[in-house]
Each structure stands twice: as C-alpha cells, then as structure tokens.
Batch of 2 targets.
Target 1
Amino acid sequence: MEHSVLGFTIRSAQPRDAKAIRMLLGSPAEQFADLWVAVDSGRGTVVAAAGVTHSRRQTPLVGPGITVHVIAPCRRRGLGRALTNHLAHRAGANGAVALYAAQKVELGSEEWQALCALEFTSCETVQHHELPLDQFELQLAPLYERLRAKGRIPASARLVPLATANFDEVVRLHLAELGSDSQTLMRRLRGEAPDSFSARYSQVLVIDDQTVGFILAHRTDRTTATVDANVLAPEFRNGWANIWLKLEATRGALRLGITKFIFTSFDHYTDTRSFTQRFGGATSKTVALMHRPLGGSAAQAVAGEPPSDLAT
Ligand SMILES: CC(C)(COP(=O)(O)OP(=O)(O)OC[C@H]1O[C@@H](n2cnc3c(N)ncnc32)[C@H](O)[C@@H]1OP(=O)(O)O)[C@@H](O)C(=O)NCCC(=O)NCCS
C-alpha cells in the first residue's frame, strides 16, 4: 500500500532501504516488526522512516514502541504525523490500544515537544539524581550505629562485596524486582561487559545464607559511579537494610576516590526521591516515557503492575 503526502510517497520498507533505515532509525530493519519509509517522489530518495518494535508493553496500556525519524530538511511538512498516524492505524488493527515512543525523552527537549504535538503524553517519568558522597557517610553512619545498638539488625545478616556473592541469587532477585535479562546481568556480574558492576563497592545483603538485597554500581569516570540497581526483598524495605547497604557502598566508593553517585528513580520510587532530597542530592534531568492511547472502547488498562522497560 502506498500513499502520498505533498510530494512524498509513504510505502512499506523494502530490502533495498536497509541502509537508509539503519541511518535514520539507528537499528537494523530486523529489529522492527513493521517498517515504513517516506520517499521523495521526484528523486526517489528515502527521507523518513518509521518502525514498530516487536515487543509490546503491557502497562499502563498494551502497545508496541515506535521510532520515527524525518531528515531535517523535510521536517514540518506533515511526514512525521502521516507516518505516526499510519503506524497507529496498523498497530490498532493488530490489537494494540496505545503506541509508545521506543526511547524515553527528556522533558522539554525538542523530541518531547514534537511527540507532544503528535498527541503523545507522558505516562511515566524517570529522574536522574546526583548525590555528592561527602555528607553521606557522616549522616548514614550514626543512623546505622543507632540501629545496630537497638538490636534491629539480625545477627545472621552479612554484607558481602559482589566479588564473593552468589551471582545466581543476585540474578534471581534482580529479575524478580527489576526485570532485565539473565544473560546481560550475568555478564555484568562476571566483569565481562564494559559497564560491569564494581566487584568491590557493589554490596550484597545476605541473611541466613539467603540473598535479600544489593546495590550494584559501576564507575562512569574517575570520581563518579552510576548506581544501576538498589534492590531489597519487600520484607526488608524502609529500614536498617537500606541504610546499611548504602553506607557500605558509599564507604567502598569513597575508598576508591569516587565522590558522586548517579542514579535514577521511577515515579513509584517515592522513597528514593525523598531520600535524594534528604541527603542533598540534585535532580539532573527528568526523562519521560511517552505514549499515545489509540482511544476507543478497546483501551484495556492493566492496573497495578510495574512498568517493563521497553523504552530505555
Ligand atoms: C519528531 C519528527 C519525527 C517530527 O517529524 P515532522 O515531519 O517534522 O512532523 P510533522 O511535520 O508531521 O509535524 C507534526 C506536528 O509536530 C510538530 N512538531 C514537529 N517538530 C516539532 C518540534 N521540534 N517542536 C515542536 N513541535 C514540533 C509540528 O508543528 C506538527 O504539529 P501541528 O500539526 O500541530 O502543527 C522529526 O522532527 C524528527 O525526525 N525528529 C528527530 C527524531 C525524533 O525526535 N523522533 C521522535 C521520537 S521517536
């Protein structure tokens, strides 16, 4: 099927478009379940591409992710809207009730503005926080000592550096609480990935030989570490475990010359957000997952489930 928009033709992508698609969408054609291009009707060159992901998010509405890119000289002529509407129509016919932007975008950015104009709205935000460590240990250490003195910390609780932890157990808890995939996690745990978790200041909490929590982090420059995961089994949240884990991770990082942690929080991580404020952290940016409900009675909200991470 083809249709025209003011001197451009929109058609389904062909094998000969592979190079243009990779350049425009930043991924090979196989990564998309449905792929369309806009071609300059005069010159026959591809000026825009739009693709739909194979995977679908289940929450808050069922639907795939899309990526749309129009070359700069051809913007503001209706191509972005035509391609998006076309994908929306096709996804709707396939049972989707929403489209998601496959990548999260920074609030207020040009991409965000364009997506808003294309009828997308934010359905989840992720904040990036920066936390200087200088005051951190000073504030956490007395809290920890008080909890220890009051006997709140079970005698069988131990913190072990990641290097000596049970990786299978860490993967199990990570998948249960945060998702991701086991192969990628295992590579990062074993030190085989460029962003592998530090084996020294990443800490794992073990009680009676059960892995019940961890902080996993990796160094991003000489003085900064990014905290990739801060997880506690539900029964150990909001208490001594969080304070002890953070204190030991901080001490380990300080010993290596790290002065700042960077980490992210989703809307439902209210404890992380209040914690950041309490300890003098700053929110460096906020990115949003954008979606466009397709409307109609088919909209099936799936309530009460955590978001999966289609958009990264
Ligand atoms: C976003 C993008 C696809 C829009 O394509 P486009 O062909 O310029 O879009 P259209 O001409 O169909 O415009 C659609 C609407 O978006 C608005 N719009 C487009 N770019 C905009 C921008 N940078 N800021 C604000 N609004 C914008 C247009 O004004 C129009 O709104 P209107 O119909 O109410 O006037 C294009 O700018 C692009 O490829 N950007 C880089 C990649 C990107 O950010 N993709 C979005 C995430 S997948």
Target 2
Amino acid sequence: MNDLSTWASALVSAVDADNLTHPEACCRDARTPHALAGAPTAVLDHVALAYEDFQRCGALPLSRLRSDVVAHRLTVHEDGENILVARMVVPGGPWPGHYGLEAVAFTAERAAMPDAFPPCEDRGQVLAFGRIVAASKAYTARASGGAVLFPEQLAVTARPARQSFGVVFLDRLTTLFRDRVLPLIDDRHEGMHAFPLRRLRQLAFLAHEWGHRQGSDAELEVPARSRRLAAVIAELRADLEALVMLEACSEAWAPWAAGVLIADRIAREAWLRRPQAQVDAIAARHLLALLLRHRAVTLTSGHRIVLHLDQAAVFLHEELEMVRRVAEELSAGEAGAVARYLAGCGWAITDGATCYRELEQPIARYLGYQASMKETARA
Ligand SMILES: [Zn+2]
C-alpha cells in the first residue's frame, strides 16, 4: 500500500504541470488522470470519482473539465485520509475568479459544535476540520491559499442540491489570522492573546456555521450559496446570529471568539482582491460599516484596533432582526429583497450582483492600507 503523502506529492506535481504547461490537453490525455493510478487503498473511492469526471469529459480540453461526480458524490472520510481532485476556484487564492485544476490530499476529523452553544440540528450539513497533506499550487500559496473545500467551489454542469461535503483547514485560517490580523489588535483584548489562537479561530468558525444553521433549509443549499446576493445575506445572517449567540454565552472564551470572528472579517476579508465580486468581502465590508456607524471599532494612538463589543450588542441584535426579515422575503420569492436592503445601507449594485462600497472613514482606510501592505509583502 502506498503512503498518501508520497503518492499525493506526485499527483500534485501532475496537476501543477497540467495547469502550467498543458491547459489545452484533452482531459483523457492530461497527466493528472494518469497520476491517479497507484493510490493508497484508503482513498480509492475518492480517486474513482475524479477518474470518472476525467473520463466523462474525455476529449474536451482541461479548461472544459466539469467535476460533477466529485461535487455530487464525494463524502469525507472522517478520522481518515482523503483526496479531492477537481476543476475549481480557490477563494482568496492567487488567481481570484480563475478556475484551475486542483488536488488536495488531507486528513479529517468531524467538526462538532461545542456544548456551550445552544443545540442545533446539523440540517444535513456535514462539516470536517482538515489537515493538508499535499495540495496543488493555488492551495499552497503562502498566506493566500485555500482554507476551505465546498461543492460550490467546483466547476460543474449541474449544481448539487445538497452540500455533500464541507472541509475547513483550520491551520490555514489560524495562520492567516496570526500573521495578518492579530498584529493590528490592541493588547487590551488580552483574551485573544491568552487563549490558544487555533481554538479561538475554531470557535469563531463554528459559531459562524451555527449561525448558518439558524437559516431556512433553502439558504443552506448549494444553489442559494452560489447566487451572490443570496450568499451575501446568508453570510451576514450567519455572522450576526453567531455574534448575538456568543454575546449570550457565559464561557470565558465567548467574547474573544466573537472578537476573532469580527477582526478577521474587518481586517482581512473586507480587503480581499476584487472585493465587489467576493461574497466574503461584501459581507465583511458591511459588518465594518455597521461597526463604524456605531463607533464600535476605534483606533488607538498606537494604531491598533479596539472592538467595543458591549456597545455593539444592541445594534447587532437590531441588524440581525432586519437581516432575518430580508432572508425571509427572499425565501418567499421576493428576488429584489437583498438588493433593496443593501442599497438602503449605501451599497451601489450593478448587473444585479456586483456590490461596490468604498469606506472613507480613517479606520477603514487604515485597515485597507495595512491589508494592501501585507499583500505586497507576500507578492
Ligand atoms: Zn458562511
């Protein structure tokens, strides 16, 4: 039996070579399907799915590969080894909006909600925390690579109705936070430095997912997550549900997990490249605008940010009520509900889905500047 790491490293090299040197090779003749041979027994079922996609698209060029079989049928081996090979976009990756062939080998463990959160049904959402064993270039790009795997990232001809898998690479999220966000946070947020950062990032992520599960079934489905404005309102709702829930949570870590959730949004995701087209960036800017309007984020003389969460509790609650109503209108078939809400908050929307908003306040300009400096530093 082959070792996952050795086999996956060779597979990843084939994927990278196909992207760089053979993008017009036909699916059947590309290097990647040949490199699928000799896989460890533990991932043979995953390999078979990828292989089926390559065979189905046979004579088409790689750029026309559609990964329907993987998107519809991959199930993650919890407490085991996994491989996903598909044509997909890497959110936050080096080529925003660019679909490339990607391979990610990883181990996984089930992501369970903490007992301290109010109980919620998993609603058919299966979520795992993964550790990357080997991954293609877009994934491994330092400080920008992929941090999640969801079916909606894959290039498909027909979207799956349900989310058959969801994987979060917590180490990647933690590193991004430690390198790009934590240095901007004032020391008076001592809990963010005192609690293990990986645990806080995990709690912040789980709180956000808990927030998603408070929405309607339709909101959780892949087609809804793939429509930008519907996805934006779902993201906003998940953040607000999470923040309101954490505010009521008596655990000592709860305010720090809320701080991590907010800080990652406003200091990092709000400044992703092409923010007008990135769901996370739009939701993040919206949250930042809310915090600024209510003076719930301030800047110290030493240029560190301070979050005033106690002050934020009331307006976050009010905004959650508003966003819940928008989501309900949308579910009831009011297609323009989200655009109306966003436009009312100061967003300019073009083509029905591209959302522009420049934030001119000094704190926003400072955060944007810091994010661009970190972007330049890694370029
Ligand atoms: Zn989300």
